[in-house]
């Protein structure tokens, strides 16, 4: 069983990021176990905690460590990633030299309710993931513009072309995981 952790970059329970992530993981083939890794309860990273980490840090690091791959789904805040997502990345990459992200294949999904499609958030997140030594699926890129129009009230993607595109993403990510997982 291949384990995929999903990190949603926003906190709102009904966020578009969470809805996109749920739609994508439903397209995974059998043999993949999905765990949504919650980030909203993590205290802000503080190096002073390295010697005696809060329980939330330990639990999150352990959750990341048990994954074979990670899907990041995020909106764009002020032309970058949300602060809560950056905090989660920092928490699981510390203490220095003990990052649990390294080597895990990743998929980045960005979206926006405007035409920018979260492209700058995606760019910044990819830079961080490169430093964290995470191979990231390069193509197809998943940047979803006007995302509120592509998801119905039931939380499901309501456009067959978008569903087909997301399936092509999953179809590319599955062999990418197998190629890169430790």
UniProtKB/TrEMBL annotation:
GO cellular component annotations of the record: cytosol
Gene3D superfamilies reported in the protein's UniProt record: 3.40.50.360
All copies of domain NADPH-dependent FMN reductase-like, residue ranges: 2-147
Pfam family, one: FMN_red
InterPro entries listed in its UniProt record: Flavoprotein-like_sf, FMN_Rdtase-like_dom, NAD(P)H-dep_reductase
Name of the protein this chain belongs to: NADPH-dependent FMN reductase
Organism: Fundicoccus ignavus
A GO molecular function held by the record: oxidoreductase activity
Coiled-coil regions listed in the entry: none
Superkingdom field: Bacteria
């Amino acid at each position: 069983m291949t384990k995929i952790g999903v990190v949603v970059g926003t906190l709102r329970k009904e966020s578009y990021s969470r809805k996109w992530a749920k739609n994508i993981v439903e397209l995974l083939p059998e043999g993949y176990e999905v765990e949504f890794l919650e980030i909203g309860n993590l205290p802000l990273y503080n190096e002073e905690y390295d010697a005696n980490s809060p329980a939330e840090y330990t639990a999150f690091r352990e959750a990341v460590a048990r994954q074979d791959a990670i899907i990041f789904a995020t909106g764009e805040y002020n032309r970058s990633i949300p602060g809560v997502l950056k905090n989660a990345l920092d928490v699981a990459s510390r203490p220095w030299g003990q990052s649990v992200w390294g080597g895990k294949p990743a998929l980045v999904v960005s979206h926006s309710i405007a035409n920018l499609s979260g492209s700058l958030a995606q760019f910044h997140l990819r830079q961080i993931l490169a430093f964290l030594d995470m191979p990231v699926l390069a193509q197809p890129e998943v940047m979803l513009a006007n995302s509120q129009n592509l998801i119905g009230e039931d939380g499901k993607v309501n456009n067959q072309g978008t569903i087909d595109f997301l399936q092509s993403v999953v179809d590319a990510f599955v062999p990418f995981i197998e190629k890169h997982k430790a």
